[in-house]
Amino acid sequence: MAKARSQYRCSECRHVMAKWVGRCPECGTWGTVDEVAALATIGGGALQRTGVPSSPAVPLSSIDPDCTRHFPTGVSELDRVLGGGAVPGSVSLLAGDPGVGKSTLLLEVVHRWAKAGRRALYVSGEESAGQIRMRAERTGCTHDEVFLAAESDVQTVLGHIEAVQPSLVIVDSVQTMTAGDTDGVVGGVTQVRAVTTALTGTAKTTGVAMILVGHVTKDGAIAGPRSLEHLVDVVLHFEGDRNSTLRMVRGVKNRFGAADEVGCFMLQDNGIQCVADPSGLFLDQRPEPVPGTAVTVALDGKRPIIGEIQALLAFRNDHAQPRRAVSGVDSSRAAMIAAVLERRAGLKISATDVYLSTVGGMRLLDPSTDLAVAMAMASAYADLPLPATTVVIGEVGLAGDLRRVTGMDRRLAEAARLGFTTALVPTGCGTTPKGFRAIESATIGDALRSMLAISKSPYDNVVTPLRRDRSSNDPDAVDNNWL
């Protein structure tokens, strides 16, 4: 029988090599090559070995479904993303930028968990016990059933779990934990994999629900090996802008529920609060509508959220290069929509400065917001405000056609719930809520005519197509080709 030889494999791309190298020649990643044992071969075929199973295989229908039911954490928005709560024996990974509020959120989770009569263990490898106690007093998250351990050795952490016997464990963070029997630097690929494997094995054998905090790189990816996301059951991303108090937990992977849910929070000085209805945060509060604004309904996962787009057009008399400033909207799609308005609808905006922005720092990357961007620019061009009770939903094609988007029934239902009465949408949108009016348009030109029909010109008291040339300084100049 041939002697088994060692091989070396990259944890990122699974490329196998005969000797160790610092950088994988296949994917170019540093520090991901580890030694693995190769099977002994006989005559070119792999040596087959059989083992005695630890437990017999059983029919799928005989397994009790209640063994993996959800237990609510007490934080409603987090339970929404998790699919109903934490599952015993599950391992969740919560990743986010530094200072976004991960520790504050999880401290609120263990507090609510303890208030429900269950024991929780918070393990911190980054902060001391005094620092966590200070934050707990500031946010009002102190409870006798919340146990705290400031440890960085994974074997010691497993000892704490055995001694405390909690039903929920928070490890903050997995990149700061070390495995004494494994080589590698703290936070390296080998150490992170060994720590995660040990914690996952403990969660599966003891039935303890575990939430791991993960760091992210400067590109926004989870630090460590890619296999880290495969080892855990749930992967969550904690997102937020430092200039805003709004925070979002986005599900990326979930073995116990939907993987496209989003939870909204407000990070305050005294803690973190759930936001059940975030649409009001992205609308500008004004008594009267103004030109250059359009309201749309975007889908973030399965959640419809109302957003407002504002446009400002400044006409230039010189021959300088026009400026395009975009915030919260995809700049390439905004340039495409401006070109469609110029070519297909006759709006002379190629020589104008275009400024686009969203209210509240919202990021609208959904193609369903194309029509709202177009209507905002057209409203600013014509100096006509859209009614405050109108939403605009639809995708714009390069031929000037309007395309249907997914989830139109949920978008219209959310708009009707918030008091909107009219929607400018592509043709074939389907059924609408009771008392709600949907104005369907096939092309961008039809949508602009519909906008003029539901808007009131500030220059006269009748609803007629606006024919003033807004690119001229002469107030009596006429533009006959803008539609």
TrEMBL record:
Gene3D superfamilies xrefs: 3.30.230.10, P-loop containing nucleotide triphosphate hydrolases (3.40.50.300)
InterPro entries attached to this UniProt entry: AAA+_ATPase, DNA_repair_RadA, P-loop_NTPase, RecA_ATP-bd, Ribosomal_Su5_D2-typ_SF, Ribsml_uS5_D2-typ_fold_subgr, Rubredoxin_2
Residue ranges annotated for the RecA family profile domain, each copy included: 67-216
Residue interval(s) of motif RadA KNRFG motif: 253-257
CDD domains: RadA_SMS_N
Positions annotated to bind ATP: G96, D97, P98, G99, V100, G101, K102, S103
Keyword Transferase included in the entry's annotation: no
Region (Lon-protease-like): 353-483
Keywords assigned: ATP-binding, DNA damage, DNA repair, DNA-binding, Hydrolase, Metal-binding, Nucleotide-binding, Stress response, Zinc, Zinc-finger
Pfam family for this entry, one: Zn_ribbon_LapB
Keyword Nucleotide-binding part of the UniProt annotation: yes
Notes concerning its domains: The middle region has homology to RecA with ATPase motifs including the RadA KNRFG motif, while the C-terminus is homologous to Lon protease.
Primary role: Plays a role in repairing double-strand DNA breaks, probably involving stabilizing or processing branched DNA or blocked replication forks. DNA-dependent ATPase involved in processing of recombination intermediates, plays a role in repairing DNA breaks. Stimulates the branch migration of RecA-mediated strand transfer reactions, allowing the 3' invading strand to extend heteroduplex DNA faster. Binds ssDNA in the presence of ADP but not other nucleotides, has ATPase activity that is stimulated by ssDNA and various branched DNA structures, but inhibited by SSB. Does not have RecA's homology-searching function.
Family: Belongs to the RecA family. RadA subfamily.
Protein name: DNA repair protein RadA
Species, as recorded: Candidatus Mycolicibacterium alkanivorans
Gene name per UniProt: radA
